[in-house]
Design a protein that fits this description.
Helix content is about 30%, strand content about 25%. Strand 7 and strand 8 form a beta hairpin. Helix 6 crosses helix 7. The radius of gyration is 18 Å and the shape is globular.
């Protein structure tokens, strides 16, 4: 697996989207002091293709292997990310010599769709029986609507993108297991159900992480690192407390400075961990994310660097 991430240089304080969305000063203070959010990444002059291009241009493992890519998957938090009938991912594939690949979106698990896309890519490649085949998983969206700017009471969305090259086999970043826990009962806007989602959030996500680790034949003590989705700091502190896992081994560097970058978080955090020397050869690590939209999805996968 080869991974690239991209965050635009511009940052805006959370007060800016909060003001447009009608949040009070006290609500903003809670986001800053309790949730640990400060700024979000923005590219005001660029569109979705510019974000995805930023990640693709950094994916060195793709160069010279474009002909091997059989599938291109765009992992989405929201079902619609650009106006109809615009298809920027198809245009990018033509630009990068991937016009021969099958292109489709994966968005059934909201913000956890990035992990679903990686697992789906592996299954497709395994079924093909082509040992040289590759799949490209893209993630990243524009915060172009009110709904795409904030997770109510939880986080603010930032703009950015990731690109992940998947092979059916290999020695680096091997996928050992994948687990997901789906909750269709949360497919409603009822206030009491939203409160119930918040109540079970930490235990459900921790349970999914444990399930993935057990399927890999490991214990939490063997996990060197967790690469999370950037929902907020306090949510991950609660998950760590439930797991009995050291929170300093969860890569939360980008929460305060970039925000929740849709499905790209775990991959952007992978690059951060690599840059900081936190990923050690042969050591297992976890990618984990939760998504809420039409129901809820809690997902985790275990890989070996």
């Amino acid at each position: 697996m080869a991974v690239a991430g991209y965050l635009p240089r511009q940052r805006v304080p959370i007060e800016e989207p909060a003001g447009r969305l009608g949040l009070s000063a006290m609500q903003v203070k809670v986001f800053r002091r309790y949730h640990g959010l400060g700024e979000v990444a923005r590219d005001p002059d660029g569109g979705l293709p510019d974000l995805l291009r930023g990640a693709l241009s950094r994916l060195d493992g793709l160069r010279g292997h474009e002909h091997r890519v059989r599938y291109v998957l765009h992992a989405r938090t929201f079902p619609t990310v650009v106006p109809h009938p615009y298809h920027p991912v198809h245009e990018l594939c033509e630009e990068y010599g991937l016009g021969h690949a099958a292109v489709f979106a994966v968005g059934h698990h909201a913000c956890a769709s990035g992990l679903l896309a990686v697992e789906t890519a592996g299954r497709l490649l395994g079924a093909d029986g082509d040992p040289d085949g590759l799949a490209l998983v893209l993630a990243g969206e524009k915060a172009f609507t009110g709904e795409a700017q904030m997770v109510p009471g939880t986080s603010f969305f930032g703009e950015g993108a990731s690109a992940c090259l998947v092979a059916a086999s290999g020695e680096r970043d091997r996928l050992l297991s994948y687990a997901t826990d789906l909750h269709g009962e949360f497919d409603t806007d009822a206030a009491d159900v939203a409160l119930e989602f918040q109540r079970v959030y930490a235990s459900a996500l921790a349970g999914t992480v444990r399930a993935a680790v057990e399927r890999a034949g490991l214990t939490m003590d063997a996990i060197g690192l967790i690469l999370p989705h950037n929902v907020n700091r306090i949510a991950w502190h609660q998950v760590c407390r439930t797991l009995g896992y050291p929170r300093e081994r969860v890569v939360l560097d980008n929460v305060a400075s970039a925000g929740h970058v849709f499905c790209a978080d775990t991959f952007i955090n992978y690059r951060t961990a690599l840059r900081r020397g936190l990923l050690r050869r042969g050591e297992p690590y976890v990618m984990a994310a939760a998504g809420a939209g039409r129901g809820a999805a809690f997902s985790a996968m275990v890989l070996t660097h």
